[in-house]
Amino acid sequence: MLASHNLVQHDYKHILYELRPCKDKSGNPIAGLFNAWIILNNPAQFNSYTTDAVKEVILAMRDSSNDRSVVAVVFTGVGDKAFCTGGNTKEYAEYYAGNPQEYKQYMRLFNDMVSSILMHDKPVICRVNGMRIGGGQEIGMACDFSISQDLARFGQAGPKHGSAPIGGSTDFLPLYVGIENAMFSCTVCDPWSAHEALRLGLLTEVVPALKVNGEYVANPLVVVDKWVDDKGQIVYGKSKTGEELAKGKEMMKAGVVDLSALDEAVEKYCTKLLYTMPNCLSKTLNTLRVHKLVFWDMNKESHRDWLALNMMTEGKAGFRAFNEGPKDNREADFVKLRQMLAEGHEWNDDLIKAISPQCQ
After folding, report:
1. Residues in a beta bridge with 113
2. Fewer CB within 10 Å: N-end or C-end of the chain?
3. DSSP label of 43
4. Domain 15-209+259-310 belongs to what architecture?
């Protein structure tokens, strides 16, 4: 009998863990070999991860890494709206805000989740079934490949909601898109379309997801092909405007989202990886991952300390604003905050109340 190298036996309750048969080059299932699908299962909150879900992702990554029958891992989310939008802001606002010692322990788990991807013995494919924002972007970039449906959006949210994208984005994003584009994404927080993310080098492949009259069409809300606007600027992947945007929205209403092409593309990559020497593949992955790990291992502990302390000030204000604010206004009053700090106002509950959306 083979020895088990798993730490614990576990029943998954907050994520889904499935072993799906590998397929040969003709598309036929192969006996005894599987791809492990690790699926975030919180669609009502755009697959944001709770503390319990983070624990289970760590265990699932370790289980699939140790499973001798697993060839590759597919990391994805339920539904077609979001792969993951990061940490669960309700939990952040109601439990971790104002509790730095608790958030520091939570960030230990988060760091372990990222590391469990980067240290996996098998290739990890991020199947981007929808938005990949904030911490979702960070765990997605820790993966080895990213294959996306073209309605998805990519970006950061930290500085808008009281945090900093130091759970991986400041480490990984410059490696993918260069320092200027990383600087823009991490500070301004404007999202990229899937087509723009592909052009910048963030993704392996993009496939269509919208079907109109039974046929796939490219994302009708963005400029898919290279185009020069009236100012002479090259536009690609940017949102359409005016009449073209209105037409795109009408097409969205007329169509249905179908992720069959995404699943086909993911299976294609899994099959390509199947036809390699397993140890040579693992060594190649680990050597390439060093470029991410150099920065990740250098920074993760000091980032954890900072994020914990930040829960006493901007984190506390930002996450409570997002959690408690009205649907159309979930950001703190940034101008008032800067004015009050310029006047020397201390960080306290009066300041947080003054800048909350309810007071605007």
Report:
1. none
2. N
3. G
4. Alpha-Beta Complex (3.90)
